[in-house]
Write a structure and sequence with these properties.
About 50% of the residues lie in helices and about 10% in strands. It has helices at about 1-40, 60-75, 85-90, 110-115, 135-145, 160-170, 185-200, 205-225, 230-235; strands at about 100-105, 120-125, 150-155, 240-245, 255. Strands 2-1-3-4-5 form a five-stranded mixed beta sheet, sandwiched between helices. The chain has a single domain (about 50-255), classed as Beta-carbonic Anhydrase, Chain A. By secondary structure, the chain is of the alpha/beta class. The protein starts with a helix and ends with a strand. It has nine helices and five strands, in the order H-H-H-E-H-E-H-E-H-H-H-H-E-E.
């Protein structure tokens, strides 16, 4: 009699488990399908690294960045230069990136991903606030003059914490920065406050000033780099473009500002 009771309980448990499995399986399968759809699939890699085609002119290099960001926006990335054959060849030859990027260190702004590019395509210098301080500027000199990058792109982004901090600590007479990355952003804050005031808004309101300061910092940094050697000479010789833009964290798009 006891065995009969256990058997019936087991059957009830088995039935419940069967129903639960039937209910859950479609969702598990759907998750597996989504994971497969989003898996990195770089496709065939017939061209070794040393034979890899790259943009031939600064204009083509800028276009490659724009096209890559369009793929990122469209959720249709190609994941280039990530297959086994390509990666194994990278160590055999010198690097030759076609673009140098001055980017904020924000973890939500990975240049290789938002431009849908791969290993050895970009030479990236990252610092909170995407400022051209001496160490990042020297890195960019190396990436352009020595490695031959065809475009130098200053990449700011929306909701930048570094710019937000600089706006809050800025004072025309007694600035009190918490971090060393804030003072290089102050010229952009000053310019932004003037623009906001000219528009009839409150230049002391961080929520109004910060978005303007983000763009102004990109513009001023790009202008400064464009006027300095060796970038100035490379631009004059049609070997380099110096451009700047803002990545929108919500829209996933890069807008060229200058």
């Amino acid at each position: 009699m006891e065995h009969s009771i256990v058997s019936r309980r087991s059957l009830l448990k088995l039935g419940a488990l069967t129903c639960l499995t039937a209910a859950v399986l479609p969702y598990v399968h759907a998750d597996q399908v989504r994971a497969a759809d989003n898996a990195c699939d770089p496709g065939p890699c017939p061209i070794p690294y040393f034979e890899k085609l790259r943009p031939a002119t600064p204009k083509e290099a800028l276009t490659a960045l724009e096209q890559g960001n369009q793929r990122w926006y469209d959720f249709d990335p190609q994941h280039p230069d990530q297959c086994e054959a390509y990666l194994k060849n990278c160590s055999a030859v010198p690097q030759k990136p076609f673009a140098a990027i001055l980017s904020c260190a924000d973890s939500r702004v990975p240049p290789e991903l938002l431009f849908d590019l791969g290993v050895a395509d970009l030479f990236v210098a990252r610092v909170a606030g995407n400022s051209a301080v001496p160490i990042t500027e020297d890195s960019l000199v190396y990436g352009t003059e020595h490695l031959g990058a065809l475009v130098l792109f200053v990449l700011g982004h929306s909701d930048c914490g570094a710019v937000t901090a600089a706006v809050k600590s800025f004072n025309p007479y007694f600035p009190q920065p918490t971090y060393a990355f804030e003072p290089p952003i102050y010229p952009a804050v000053r310019a932004a406050r003037k623009i906001v005031e000219e528009e009839g808004k409150d230049p002391r309101d961080p929520s109004v000033v910060t978005p303007v300061a983000i763009d102004q910092h990109v513009i001023l940094t790009t202008q400064a780099l464009n006027s300095r050697e060796p970038f100035k000479d490379l631009v004059k010789d049609d070997k380099l473009l110096v451009k700047g833009g803002r990545y929108d964290l919500r829209k996933l798009t890069v807008t060229i500002l200058i």
